[in-house]
Amino acid sequence: MAESSAEYIQHHLTNLTYGQLPDGSWGFAETGQQASEMGFYSIHVDSMFWSLLLGIVFCSLFRVVASSATSGVPGLLQCSIEALVDFIDELTTSIFQHKNPLIAPLALTIFVWVFLMNFMDLIPVDWIPQVAHLVGINYMKVVPSTDPNVTMAMAFSVFILILYYSVKQKGLGGFIKELTSHPLPSKWAIPVNLLLELVNLIAKPISLGLRLFGNMYAGEMIFILIALMFSASFGIALFGGLLHWVWAVFHILIITLQAFIFSVLTIVYLAQAYEVDEH
Predict the structure, then answer these.
(1) Taking the complete model, does pTM exceed 0.85, yes or no?
(2) Domain ranges of the chain
(3) Catalytic residue positions?
């Protein structure tokens, strides 16, 4: 039982990976060990697929609501989306007190997209992988935010914007001066200042991406462990079903909170990039 449980967990934690096989050819990994040995140039196809699909769902949904919006009595969907847009806009205005029409739409996109990726964690862990297995796909992870490649890619995309707006607002010389003149106002302390400021700068995308990954990965693990109870006796399976429902209800708060935190920190970091006299 212990061995089969370990295999079950390992199977659910393995991505559908495409890369270079041990014989030098390119193809999909057939085992979890093979997937882990494929190296840097391998691609997690399932993470890419679900990320893009959920992005399309997000864009399509908002497009449909925008094109069918009415000034009369709106429907529930229109009310919900309008309330969300107003909330993100007010949140952005309160944090980012500069003129940039990109920030609010960016924050909205991040919040909804991350929420949809996190929401996939509420689907029972065996449903979609079992369907994939029936069509010949051995591995299928459906929660993109449990893949550090996805969360870190989003975080470093935000990091590129931070660097871009820092240089745009302060100039290259001003940005370098900011990195070398704080927190110690002495020319002799430039190496120390640069080291401290670079650590602080690089910590932003790393903490942004790993925070989301860590929380969602832990949630996924709990769902997988609960699913193991369904193969036990009737009493344990019944308790597992109750536990699954309780954790799912609580997890709704977690997936929303993680999307909110990622969105808010993005606004905060970009606001800091605009601050000429930050220190």
Answers:
(1) yes
(2) 46-274
(3) 207, 211, 215
